[in-house]
Design a protein that fits this description.
The mean pLDDT is 95. A hairpin with a 4-residue loop joins strand 5 and strand 6. The protein is mainly β.
Length: 124
């Protein structure tokens, strides 16, 4: 059974950094891509970042490129999302996702496995 469990969300002040974690189980990182989507209040779910852990290739949406860094720890089956210089516009529920689909083709409707989500609120 595929399981994705996010952690690390919370209330953060603007300008600070945050690291989200996604503990994955039930599948091989060789066969699946893992990444993050986010959904802000009243908005559609959007792709943020994706990693092909088998070769280390990473993908980012234009809106977060330069501030977000995705990484994987294969020994612990965990994927991380480091977020720097947080702004109120980053406030959202962040979902960990896993799917065999290549990162370049990731859209919410192709994802088979989702975590429950981690709320990140950026506010002073």
């Amino acid at each position: 059974e595929v399981q994705l469990v996010e952690s690390g969300g919370g209330l953060v002040q603007p300008g600070k950094s945050l690291r989200l974690s996604c503990a994955a189980s039930g599948f091989s990182f060789d066969d699946y891509r893992i990444g993050w989507f986010r959904q802000a209040p009243g908005k559609e779910r959007e792709g943020v970042s994706c990693i092909n852990a088998s070769d280390g290739r990473t993908y980012y949406s234009d809106s977060v490129k330069g501030r977000f860094t995705i990484s994987s720890d294969l020994a612990n089956n965990t994927v991380y999302l480091q977020i720097r210089s947080l702004t109120p516009e980053d406030t959202a529920v962040y979902y960990c996702a896993a799917d065999p689909t290549p990162c370049s083709d990731w859209y919410p409707w192709v994802i088979n496995y989702w975590g429950a989500g981690a709320l990140v609120t950026v506010s002073s």
